[in-house]
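Task card 7
Instruction: Convert sequence to structure tokens.
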Amino acid sequence: MPINPRVMPFTKHFVELRKRFTYAFFTFLVLAFVFYSDFFYGLFMDILLHPIRDYIPGGRLTVLGPFETLTFRFKMSLYASFVVSSPVILYNVFAFIMPAIKKKERKWLIPTVTAAIVLFLCGVAFAYFIIMGPAFEFLFEQGGGVVGSIASADLYLSGIAMMLIGFGIAFELPLVVFYLIGWNIVPFDSMLKSWRFAIVIIMIVAAIATPDWSPINMGGLSLALIILYFGALVLARIVFAEKIKQQRIDKLEYDEMYAQVGEEDVTDDDLPLPGNFETLSRKEQMIARAKAQAHARQAK
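Output:
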């Protein structure tokens, strides 16, 4: 499945897209049928239920009818197929978009994709090995020994999948923080000073990412994300040292100019703004306006 050249006729892009989709979907479909077999079905169920088997009433999941058994097994094979075939799916997605990306941008693409996959797997592993057991124990203890529960196979599968996927997606936070700083969307110093606000956002994200609001799920994910958040800041400080230094110089320059120029002294109509003012970033517009105010005031 080689990557096609960058320049192609417009219609061939659709042919390429169909080819990539066919490769990915065929792999997903074949694996789904393979994983429906008794061997793989038993293997995946043992892996999935291992951390919580002691907290399942009777140690087995329950279905309410023969049709639900078929549906549950098929759904299980689809989940497993999606996870195992995800490298092939990702490869075909990036093989389609790679020719449109400049060489300068490509050097960040592979590390970014690799980091995203590693962070997602770390989130899944964190939920599986650390959170699932204590979380299910806590949930069952809420019955107080008076309220019993039926271990519905479908509800268990949906809840576990939501937990694992939610933790995996939430663990992408460091990547978001890293690129917000790297692309000058949010200055490093602003993100560092807003750590209290960031913690509140993290707790909201933890509440959304977990299937329940138990303190173990939310607390465990919140603590992990807080550590990852500050870890991302440290990494960004090292990687973008020169960019952060320039951000601080620009801010200092603007603050000094703005302190010398009162907004009431000069109206926007009097400012000799550069011709490309509208295309500048917000930070560059602020600096350009401050400089123009200083020149206009001197002219008066």
